[in-house]
Amino acid sequence: MSRKEERHVLTARAARLTKVLALVGVVAFVATGCSTEEVLRFGWPEGVTPQAEQMRQLWTWSVVAALAMGVLVWGLILWSIIFHRKKSEEFPRQTQYNVPLEMVYITVPTIIVVVLFYFTAVTQNFVNSKDEPADVNVTVTSFQWNWEFTYTDPKYKIDQQRQVSTVGSSSEIPLLVLPTGKNVRYTLQSKDVIHSFWVPDFLFKRDTFPYPKKNNQDNVFQNRIDTPGAFVGRCAELCGTYHAVMNFEVRGLPSEVFDRYMALRLKENAKTAKLYTAAEALAELNCGELCSPQAITTKPFNTDRTAGTASGR
């Protein structure tokens, strides 16, 4: 068989292999049952804020770029395997100091790094931006092993010393009730050790440091919840014995429902002769699951170490 005929056979085999691989890829894609939107997320969780969507876009295009580079590299590897196999004992021609090729090796990776750096910086600046005025200001205080949420706007002032706030306990998950479609500014602090404010649906977390002594980290961030719902929150920094159960819940309510909720938080409950708690105010609103007085996404953990009984001998 001549070299030309051999090359033709190899080309035909490569074409068949390409078709088979393409068919396998299509079958694998269809078998997953994923929607187009799910495919474009490449496993990235679905967020509920514009900041989360911006990070999703960065992730999507980073993966697309990585796949494109991977296809190029795989193609070059297959090309070398197919068309540059050993054909005889003759030593192939050697080339050294291929300056144009070396320039490509240097230039292309540099361009890739610069482009990724640029879009990463743009996304980071958007996520950290606090340029827009905040509609609601909340101070998040972490402590071993729970959370306190204080609404610091003047309109949520109870008296000269107190603001509307919610504190968690061993028997009650604290609810951070927020309006959807509004800019919320969070100020983070800790009463004891380092904790971390993490809401998976925000695709965002930030450590909380002891106040007023802390490092130079920016302890303020801002976002907007676009979707009503209940979103679990967790501590993402190992902080002691009950770190794993230091949960809270963000409850996103439509703006008008949130206004009614806050109006109740400033009033006295006729049944208890005390100000409405978060649970009592939500129950009073009676607007379905979104107004559940207890957390929907998580539940309290029994911290009594003697509550269980051993099942072994």
Automatic annotation (TrEMBL):
Main location: membrane
Domain Cytochrome oxidase subunit II copper A binding: 133-264
Catalytic activity: 4 Fe(II)-[cytochrome c] + O2 + 8 H(+)(in) = 4 Fe(III)-[cytochrome c] + 2 H2O + 4 H(+)(out)
Compartments reported by the entry: Cell membrane; Membrane
Transmembrane annotation, as ranges: 60-82, 103-121
Keyword set includes Cell wall biogenesis/degradation: no
Membrane topology: Multi-pass membrane protein
EC number annotated for this UniProt entry: 7.1.1.9
Cofactor note as given: Binds a copper A center.
Entry keyword set: Copper, Electron transport, Membrane, Metal-binding, Respiratory chain, Translocase, Transmembrane, Transmembrane helix, Transport
InterPro entries reported in the protein's UniProt record: CcO_II, CcO_II-like_C, Copper_CuA, Cupredoxin, Cyt_c_oxidase_su2_TM_dom, Cyt_c_oxidase_su2_TM_sf
Co-factor requirement: Cu cation
Pfam family, one: COX2
Role this protein plays: Subunits I and II form the functional core of the enzyme complex. Electrons originating in cytochrome c are transferred via heme a and Cu(A) to the binuclear center formed by heme a3 and Cu(B).
Similarity field: Belongs to the cytochrome c oxidase subunit 2 family.
PANTHER family listed in its UniProt record: CYTOCHROME C OXIDASE SUBUNIT 2, CYTOCHROME C OXIDASE, SUBUNIT II
Name of the protein in question: Cytochrome c oxidase subunit 2
Organism listed in the record: Allokutzneria multivorans
